[in-house]
Amino acid sequence: MYRLLVRPVTAGAVLVVAAASACSYVGREDFDTTVADIRSEMSAQDQRISANEAGVADLQSDLEGLRVSLDELRDEFQVVVSEFEDGIRFATPVHFDFDSAEIRPEDVELLDRFAGVVSGYYSNSLVTVEGFADPAGSTSYNLSLSQARAETVASYLASSGSLDGESVRAVGYGETRPVIPGAKGPGDEGLENRRVSFVIDFGG
User: Fold this and answer.
1) Cβ contacts of residue 78 below 8 Å, gap of 6+?
2) 11, HSE (Cβ side, Cα atoms, 13 Å)
3) Does the model's pTM come out above 0.90?
């Protein structure tokens, strides 16, 4: 016979302990069962700790990879990244020719790189492509044109295979929120206003 005075080892181990004042005793079988339960709980907790440490390491690696990717977009393409609650906005130099919704060849590389960042780090997020126009033409026409630009880019991102089409939407804002107020025309003067930007909603 063994007298057993045991303190709880972990939060998950609930033990029936013999009180010293009562001088209670447990048999060998009960003693072995109690020790086995303690060891099992300790082993499970060790596994949880190891899993948490591995998860933290993976998260740190992902964050470092994301930081590098965002820095590359900033340096190579002059992308402006702004963070806000539950999301992030990418103001990109993806522009359009006058009165056109076609993607320019020089912007394809940036779109591909952007899609890679999203699929690598924001695969479960909603991506909104925001389209804009310069103030040439009527307000209603510019709204329609900006919607067409956003849809063209959204379709390209989905068709590239990097993003799920259901996770990409297009919204046109017409001539609102201009980069250069009043700038318009068939030349380069209105180019900065003929653009798209991207919003990643990782809260949705």
Assistant:
1) 93
2) 2
3) no
